[in-house]
Amino acid sequence: MENQNNNSGELKTLAEGSQSSITDPFVAVIRDDATYAKLRKMEPKLPRLEADFFRLNIVVAAFLGTRNTGGYSVEISRIENGKIRVAERAPAKDAMTAQVITSPFKLVSFSPQGSTAVDLSAGEIFQQRAQLYRISGGTFRGGGGLAGRNESYQLNGKLQLSRLGDLVTIGFALVGDGSERERSLRGSATGVIKERRDYD
To answer: Residue by residue, what is the 3-state secondary structure of 98-151?
Structure first.
């Protein structure tokens, strides 16, 4: 295995293949050992990472789901403004492909270099399983700076949730209206769901 410290900010492939135990489309943005351990329980073929790996790196993992032939793969790349694009690469319509069921996947890592926000652009196959929530109301208040100003503005935007077992990926795109300058918060993160049951 290659050196696991990625200091360049570029995407580094950790693993990829055509066979995975995870057979539903899912994208994860992993920032901690506990979340990665849950993913490895679902797909034991994923590489072991050093104990302090997530101190300097973020992992993006994408699983395409079941395909009826070979020739499919997952593509993860950086596009404009540092956004990370996750897409399905399908074989050409007239291509000769192996008649075997596949479940392609890919894992990459990168060093956030100061900004820990991860803005994803996920392809349609990954969007189909996500639940979309529109934010229709809410207020955000902020303050500080040398002048000690306080500011309040309305929130608009959306949240997108995808779940795989005990993992959930939340993508958010929030925009503030009524601010003197543009305010926005965009990113994606994956975490472990801990079910809580209250009994009387």
So the answer is: CCCCECCEEEEEECCCCCCCCCEEECHHHHCCCEEEEECCCEEEEEECCCCEEE
Distance, C-alpha 129 to centroid of its chain? 14
Concatenated DSSP letters for 15-58?
EEES--S--S-EEEEE-SHHHHHHHHHH-TTSPP--TTHHHH-E
Model's pTM, two decimal places? Answer: 0.82
183 vs 131: CA distance, rounded Å? 25
Give φ, ψ of 157 to 5 degrees.
Answer: 145, -155
**What are residue 105's phi and psi, to 5 degrees?**
-150, 165
Q: Which of 151, 149, 157 is nearest to 119 (CA)?
A: 157
Distance CA 112, CA 89 (A): 26
**pLDDT by residue for the chain (200 residues), tens digit each?**
333 444 446 899 999 999 999 999 999 999 999 999 999 999 999 999 998 999 999 999 999 999 988 888 999 998 877 789 999 888 888 787 878 899 999 999 999 876 677 888 888 888 888 898 888 777 776 666 666 677 777 778 888 999 999 999 999 888 777 666 667 778 899 999 887 655 44
Tokens coding 151: 């500011």
Structure-token pair, residue 115: 């900004």
